[in-house]
Structures are given as structure tokens and as C-alpha cells.
Amino acid sequence: MPNTALITGASSGLGAEFARYHARRGGDLIITARRKEALEALKAEIEERDGVTVHVISCDLGAPGGAERLYDEVKALGERIEVLINNAGFGGHGLHTERPLEAELKMIELNVTALVTLTHKIGADMVAAGGGRILQVGSTAGFMPGPQQAVYFATKAFVGSYSQAIDHELRKKGVTVTVLAPGYVETEFAKTADLEGTGLVKGGGKSAASVAKIGYDGMRRGELVVFNEGRLKFLLGWVTPFLPRRAVLKMVDGMQTK
Ligand SMILES: NC(=O)c1ccc[n+]([C@@H]2O[C@H](COP(=O)([O-])OP(=O)(O)OC[C@H]3O[C@@H](n4cnc5c(N)ncnc54)[C@H](OP(=O)(O)O)[C@@H]3O)[C@@H](O)[C@H]2O)c1
After folding, report:
1. What is the pLDDT of residues 172-225, one digit of tens each?
2. Quick one: which atom of ligand 1 is closest to the CA of 111?
């Protein structure tokens, strides 16, 4: 099976678009998420159109041990993974102490623990095989603290920091790690995170297909951090780091108020 990609969170949004884009380039796929029917529908669509092989693994990566179970199932397929796209993730709106702790911890389990587990295990396999590409779906949220989505912003800060360090460690061994930092994208994300009605999403966002293409192409080039909008790259690199911390907190709070 040549050029095989493992893509998490492929049942909707960015993950489904990463899968379609990879398949159009002739690559085989292992797609995973919880919703098996959506994955099977995507498999049928892609195999029919692109003539590649798609494996479906239904898995809850937010459950303890979920990523280990996924890894074991991937190994049982006997495929070498050339591309890993750690995309599954979710957010959640509200004041931290008023949100259920269980939901906050599940977010950390999915956005951080599962991503670290798969990067560790599949990264080691890629090193042993002599190369590979890893794309980590972070967020512009990773570049600032996020009142009313405190845990989500913190998980994405972790993804950015961790992934850049791992790229530095693995690049000389032939494995690159790229962080995609999107602004708002039109997917199921806002509904799941209860963000509808906030300033953040009112103005609309970019399409999942356009953002997936930018991230995937950046990963193929081995870029370290990829923004899908030049405007956001400038703001987060050259404006917000120089603003007073409390002004940034107030600004983000305002963007996330309904
Ligand atoms: N949309 C945005 O504005 C935006 C901006 C920046 C970054 N991002 C990031 O982009 C990534 C993809 O999100 P999206 O925008 O495409 O949202 P989405 O349409 O809600 O997709 C999220 C994906 O994650 C999967 N997922 C959720 N919980 C899971 C679990 N417990 N176990 C396994 N898979 C799970 C979902 O599948 P199932 O429900 O079938 O499990 C789905 O396939 C996320 O990491 C998100 O943080 C999104």
C-alpha cells in the first residue's frame, strides 16, 4: 500500500477534506473517528472516484486508552504509515468553573493525550522506516489565552509548542512535523463547541477544503507552522505579542461573548 495516510477526525470538516485531498494525489488512507457510517460513506466516495484503498477504523480517541487501541488496530492492518494527520479535536464554550469538568478533561484527552500518543508511536515507526510527514491541527487559538474557551485554547498552545519541538528532534531523522494554525473554518466545530452567535463565528469562516489544502501542502513542503490567512499570521506574530496581556484577554473574551 503506497503513500498511506492515517487521518483522525475524518468523519467531517477538515479531516474529511484532508482525506479527499490525499486520495486525489493517489495515496491510500486509514480514516478514523467515532461515526462509522460517515466514515464508510467517505470511503465509498473516495474509492469510487480515486481508485485508492481506504480502511475505516471507528474509535473514541477521547476515551482513556483510545489512541493506544487505534494504534494497535492500525498495526494489525500491517500498513506502513507515511503521513499522520492528527486532526480530531473539539472546543467548548463557557466559563471554565461552570462547564462540566468531565467535558474539559475529555477535551484534553482528545486534543492533547491522543495526539501525543499517536505522534510518539507512529513517529517512532517513521524514524525506524527512514522518514514520514506529520501534520498537527493546531489553531490560531494556540497563540493566546482564551477566556470562555480556556481549556481549548490551552490545548492548542500545547499542540503548537510540543509539535515544533518534535519537528526539531525528528527532522534530522527524515521526519517532519508541521503545525496548521487555522482561523475560523466552516465545519461542525462551532456547533459542537456551542460557539454559534459569538463574534468569532458571526462573520463566517474559510471553507474546510481550502484550509485542508493549505495545511496539507505546507506539510508536504515540511514547513514548521502554517497559517491559512496572511492577515492572521501578521496579527499573531507581530501585533498581539506586543499588546498588554490584559488587553489580549479582554479582546478574546469579547470575541467569544454571545
Ligand atoms: N473549525 C474551526 O474553526 C477550527 C479552527 C482552528 C482549528 N480547528 C481544529 O480543526 C480540527 C478539526 O475540526 P473541524 O473544524 O473539522 O471540526 P468537526 O467538523 O467538528 O470535526 C471534528 C472531527 O473530530 C472527530 N472527533 C471528535 N471527538 C472525537 C473523539 N472523541 N474521538 C475520535 N474522533 C473525534 C469528529 O468525529 P466523530 O464525531 O465522528 O468522532 C470529527 O471527525 C480540530 O482539531 C479543531 O480544533 C478548527
Report:
1. 999 999 999 999 999 999 999 999 999 989 889 999 999 999 999 999 999 999
2. 45
Which ligand 1 atom sits nearest the alpha carbon of residue 14? 16
Q: Which atom of ligand 1 is found nearest the CA of 38?
A: 40
Tens of pLDDT, residues 36-78: 999 999 999 999 999 999 999 999 999 999 999 999 999 999 9
CA 235 – ligand 1 centroid, Å: 25
Strand-strand pairing, 225-227 and 175-181: parallel
What distance in angstroms lies between residue 140's CA and the mean position of ligand 1's atoms?
Answer: 15
Catalytic residue list contains 152: yes
**Ligand 1 centroid to residue 172 C-alpha, Å:** 31
Q: How many helices (H) and strands (E) does the chain have?
A: 11, 9
pTM greater than 0.90: yes
Question: For 216, which DSSP code?
Answer: H
CA distance 33 to 17: 14
Choose among 14, 42, 46, 8: nearest CA to 28.
46
Q: Which residues line ligand 1 (CB under 6 A)?
A: 9-15, 33-35, 60-62, 87-90, 110, 137, 139, 182, 184-185, 187-189, 192, 205
Where do the domains of the chain lie, and which CATH numbers do they carry? 4-255 (3.40.50.720)
What is the rounded CA–CA span in Å between residue 19 and residue 25?
10
